[in-house]
Specification:
This protein is α+β, with helices and mostly antiparallel strands and 410 residues long. 47% of the residues lie in helices and 12% in strands. The strands form 2 sheets. A 5-stranded antiparallel sheet has the order 3-2-4-1-5. Strands 9-8-7-6-10 form a 5-stranded antiparallel sheet. It is globular, with a radius of gyration of 22 Å. The C terminus is likely disordered. The structure holds fe (ii) ion (FE2) (2 copies).
Length: 410
């Protein structure tokens, strides 16, 4: 059985199933291990890890601990509650179908700009800050028309595109966050520009470390950690960049409990912009496919952020971020209270009642005629998440045999 325990409960003989440490933002730590000594526990604590998942079938049990499924159930209830407490979001001004066409062009421009920025750095030239500002402004306009379009487009990355698209994705998430909190325009654009350029220093990290298809060694991680200082040094030479954007490049790996780098800053000692960007940065990293692992689906990503907000992130800002992404992001499989199952295809102003494409009736265990329904218009509630695996291969084959069209939006 998989259980979650505090690091203080770790002792020799326990098998760690998951070190639960992707909040660190890089592929740093080993995946699983049998704890053999007290020294090993000390080392794990020194990494800043606060809670781990253990496998009681492969090592000693810990009686006073919640099982992984209890943790998940508890988290899901809390995710729903925090959205309920925060009320409605602004409804999209333009339908997703329309905005996606504009967002595609913006993404292309952003990829172009990032490629040129990296080339400039390699040639020892400055980053064109004015162009970055202009781009972020058009990204901001797209996000305010419909945040789902640009976020969806930059979320899907081919494995070799990660470094490039990650920066654009983090910037889009920062824009969505600022919009949802109705932050002043100038502050929003400055933060999103910092987010767009936050990892530019990775260009100076050797490519074997940057794209290593396995866990980084301690020495490699020490090199990787330098990228935020490199980013800051590069941007320091670029004229016209505001202080908060520069700070984001330097401090996006600081963690609320002081376990981050490069300065080990804590709590409010980390600027607002860097606290927000760190949340967006980790969310994008854990939900993207990398050369060493599959990305988490978006709900699993939100669950992880929720868990880690106990220690590593600003709790209030994490809750705001979860609310802004929506506890039922596009592409999430859900089961309604009326026993119909479907996939979320668009958001509405009520984050708990999005638009859902229905395709299965659980009452008679049979596929149904595909129909799209705006739950907010009919006051229908979602009972819970369906796991994406449940709707994989077998069921989809059945749909095909029944000639139903099923095209979950990803
Ligand atoms: Fe980074
Ligand atoms: Fe990053």
């Amino acid at each position: 059985m998989i259980k979650k325990i505090k690091v203080d409960q770790l002792r020799p003989g326990i098998f760690v199933h998951d070190f639960n440490c992707d909040w660190a933002g890089e592929n740093v730590f080993i995946n699983q291990a049998l704890i053999k000594s007290d020294k090993a526990v000390k080392i794990i604590r020194s990494w800043g890890i606060k809670e781990v998942y253990i496998d009681t079938e492969r090592g000693l049990d810990v009686k006073r601990a919640k099982t992984a499924s209890e943790v998940r159930r508890h988290t899901d209830v809390n995710l729903k509650q925090l959205s309920r407490n925060r009320g409605k979001n602004s409804p999209p001004v333009v339908p997703l179908k329309e905005e996606i066409k504009v967002a595609r062009k913006i993404k292309k421009e952003a990829v172009n700009l990032m490629q040129q920025a990296m080339a400039s750095v390699q040639e020892g030239k400055q980053v064109d800050v004015d162009r970055a500002f202009q781009l972020v402004q058009s990204m901001g306009a797209s996000i305010s028309r419909n945040p789902d379009a640009l976020i969806m487009l930059t979320r899907i990355k081919k494995k070799d595109e990660y470094t490039l698209l990650h920066s654009i994705s983090v910037s889009s998430l920062v824009l969505a966050f600022c919009n949802s909190c109705r932050l002043p325009y100038d502050m929003t654009i400055n933060m999103a520009t910092g987010a767009l350029l936050h990892d530019i220093g990775k260009i100076q990290v050797p490519v074997e470390i940057l794209n290593k298809p396995g866990r980084l060694t301690r020495e490699e991680f020490a090199v990787m950690k330098k990228h935020s200082a490199y980013s800051a040094a590069i941007l320091n030479q670029s004229k016209g960049l505001p202080e908060d954007a520069f700070d984001i490049a330097l401090h996006h790996h600081e963690r609320y409990d002081g376990t981050g780098y490069p300065d080990g800053l804590k709590g409010e000692g980390i600027t607002f912009g860097s606290r927000v960007t760190s949340i967006c940065d980790v969310y994008d990293a854990i939900t993207s496919a990398r050369c060493y692992r599959r990305g988490l689906d978006r709900v699993a990503g939100l669950r992880k952020l929720y868990e880690w907000s106990d220690y590593h992130f600003d709790k209030e800002l994490t809750f705001e971020f979860i609310h802004c992404i929506g506890v039922y992001p596009i592409g999430t499989y859900v089961r309604l209270e009326n026993e119909l199952s479907g996939v979320v295809t668009a958001s509405t102003e009520n984050v708990l009642q999005p638009v859902v494409r229905l395709f299965y009736n659980n009452k008679n265990s049979a596929p149904m005629k595909i129909q799209e329904i705006d739950l907010s218009r009919f006051g229908i509630n979602i009972a819970g998440y369906d796991s994406p695996e449940k709707w994989s291969s077998d069921k989809l084959q059945t749909f095909k045999r029944n000639r139903h069209e099923l095209t979950p939006v990803q």
